[in-house]
Amino acid sequence: MGFGEDEESAAAAAGSAGKSIFRYNSPLVQVCLIGLVCFCCPGMFNALSGMGGGGQVDTTAANNANTALYTTFAVFGILGGGIYNILGPRLTLFAGCSTYVLYAGSFLYYNHFHHQGFAIVAGAVLGIGAGLLWAGQGAIMTSYPPPGKKGSYISLFWSIFNMGGVIGGLIPFIMNYHRSKAKSVNDGTYIAFMVFMTTGTALTLSILHPSRVVRNDGSRCTNIKYSNASTEAVEILRLFRNWKMLLMFPAAWASNFFYTYQFNHVNAFLFNLRTRGFNNVFYWGAQMVGSIGIGYFLDYSFQSRKKRGLVGIGVVALLSTAIWAGGLANHLHYDGGRILTDKLDFKDSGSEFAGPFVLYFSYGLLDAMFQSLVYWVIGALADDSETLSRYTGFYKGVQSAGGAVAWQIDAHNVTKLSQLIVNWVLTTLSYPLLAILVVLAVKDEEKVGTKKDDVDDFASAKSLTEEGTSSVRELNQPD
To answer: Could you tell me which residues come within 8 angstroms of residue 316 by beta carbon, excluding any fewer than 6 positions away?
Structure first.
């Protein structure tokens, strides 16, 4: 299975390339389809998590479930790229998406029985599935587009995906609109999430194998003919001594670390139940705006791709500093001796609602710009599906390890101020390292594609298998 597509079907796919960007086997359509899959599954998961505590008054069950989730996600995020290269997109994505339904169902169960064991197990299972899904998604999103349009395709995916968070935010808002004093969401909220997640799982069967996806110039998204477990094991292990991945490590660690603080200590701490759903509509909507803005900038602002990357990092860094400074001001206002007798409501709290709402909106904007920037950098490091599936898998694995630590930090009642400062420091540290990575590894489009440029990259799975035992011995020699 996996990348063992036969030559005739690949040639037929290449022959079908035309000028229309709306062909079923075009990168645009396939990126839209993976966007719809993520709209239904992780998009709805984000809406559920964004309410704080999974929609429950006590965040303990959600914190422990998310710790289990991100622990297994850290492992299978790193392994996911190799699994994707062996199984191909349909099996990998289908297996991954099916676990989201179980997770939402565990909170429906918790609504009645308040036993967190099911939620924790479901979280661990979801971590496995999410690792598979996001490794496949990352490979599709970064390798299918033409080199000069990766930022635009990333922003397109991010917009479709985060529309799931917008719609998902409307679900608890509408279903709990007249329950302003309620402590947890009703059963219908969880059932609605499960229906969307089931639909997303079915949509994975529409994703084409990368060897059948053809760009308008007739080029295919991968030339690899096969892969196997031993090959992928070697390639995954080599990621841990790849200097490009090491430079990306802090950005990957930070990119999910801040969710715990934003969801539990801004949205859930300051706002009542229905307003949390209302806020999430705008939080995930802000992500659409942020991804479109940074995606356009990274593709079209300057002729030099390296210059676009460096200026993009500078823009996001400045915005990040301003937003986290606003977060500190908000924290000092509400935790500096002032006690909220009633949580903020979008209708009843008047002008007091505005400041925290704008801050939460800004956090969503920054999240999308930060992650879209990192994905753009990953996409600029290579142009083939098998390599990028490993790179994005590594990114998601490290990201999830950071998330697991963050949820457990909160479960152990580390102060809100400490969490805020750590988030600010982590994101700030990421920018100079990303800039170094762009300077050393990102090449302008006209220089991409020569074998010489890839001398520091991993040996491909194809060369490992074709050159046999002697090639494997060469890989073990010192550089």
So the answer is: 294, 366, 369, 370, 373, 431
Q: Which H/E stretch holds residue 100?
A: helix 89-113
- Burial class of residue 21, CB neighbours in 10 A (0-12, 13-18, 19+): exposed
Cα separation of 397 and 386, whole Å?
17
Contacts of 247-251 spanning 24+ positions with Cβ under 8 A? 247/433, 247/434, 247/436, 247/437, 248/374, 248/377, 248/378, 248/395, 248/398, 248/433, 248/434, 248/437, 249/398, 250/426, 250/429, 250/430, 250/433, 251/370, 251/374, 251/430, 251/433, 251/434
Cα pseudo-dihedral 32, 449, 251, 154, rounded to 10 = -20
How far is it, in rounded angstroms, from Cα 116 to Cα 114?
6
| CA 217 – CA 224 distance, rounded (Å) | 19
CA dihedral 306, 308, 313, 316 (to 10 degrees): -170
**Residue 333: partners with Cβ closer than 8 Å, 6 or more residues away:** 355
Which pLDDT score is estimated for 138? 86
* Ranges of residues in the chain whose predicted pLDDT is under 70: 1-21, 51-59, 179-184, 222-227, 336-341, 445-479
Q: Where are the alpha helices (DSSP H) in 264-304?
A: 268-270, 273-300
In angstroms, what CA-CA distances link 318 with 329, 365, 402? 17, 13, 23
Cα 18-19-23 angle, rounded to 5 deg: 65
The model's pLDDT over 462-478, given as tens digits with 9 standing for 90+, comes to: 443 344 444 434 434 44
Say what the pLDDT of residue 225 is: 54
